[in-house]
Specification:
Elements: E1 8-16, E2 21-27, H1 28-38, H2 45-59, H3 64-78, E3 81-84
Antiparallel strand pairs: 1-2, 1-3
């Protein structure tokens, strides 16, 4: 199975740990890394939806826009500040 982790979308800037850490998410790979390594909680409905969206984009079952939206919703679930950049 070939996983496509490079599909890009309009960036989302996440301010994690009370704003002391800034993470820029532009690809499924960066989204997965942020959710696994940096996220303040590995629980919650929106968190799991974002994880599913990451895998969905990588295997071609979800769009980058769906992943971007899922990351923004997951951030709201745990109080992570988001700056959504639109080109």
């Amino acid at each position: 199975m070939d996983w496509d982790t490079s599909i890009a979308f309009d960036p989302v800037v996440l301010f994690i740990k009370g704003g002391s850490k800034r993470v820029i998410v532009r690809t499924a790979q960066e989204a997965a890394n942020a959710l696994i390594k940096d996220w303040p909680s590995n629980d919650g409905e929106e968190y799991f939806a974002a994880m599913r969206a990451c895998v969905g984009v990588m295997v071609g079952n979800a769009t980058p826009r769906q992943l971007r939206d899922a990351i923004v919703k997951a951030a709201g679930e745990v109080g992570v500040t988001v700056v959504a950049v639109v080109h």
